[in-house]
Amino acid sequence: MSDAKITIKENGPYRVEGDVPLFDHQGNRVQPSKPGGYSLCRCGSSANQPFCDGAHRNVGFIGKEVETEPSS
Fold first, then answer.
1. Does residue 55 sit in helix, strand or coil?
2. How far apart are CA 63 and CA 50, in angstroms?
3. Which residues contact 59 (CB under 8 A, 6 or more apart)?
4. Distance CA 42, CA 39 (A)
5. Which of 5, 14, 35, 58 is the most exposed place for a label (fewest CB within 10 A)?
6. What is the C-alpha separation between 72 and 63, in angstroms, rounded?
7. CATH code of domain 5-59
8. Which residues, listed in sequence order, are joined to residue 29 by a DSSP beta bridge?
9. β-strand partners of 8
10. Is the link from the previous residue into 50 a cis peptide, with omega within 30 of 0?
């Protein structure tokens, strides 16, 4: 497996790079349209779910990159 990397884009999508397979709720592999990586929607407004189509720019999505400790 190549090096995999997921980057949280500020006020944008999750950018997935490397060989990271994506599956739907029934276990079927979802093939991104472009090789090398894909962006997953975080705002919920993409017309191409689960992929990002840039809709976050139009809806004023503000993402928070907050890391929290799990509660015990």
1. helix
2. 17
3. 43, 45
4. 9
5. 35
6. 26
7. 3.40.5
8. 23
9. 14
10. yes
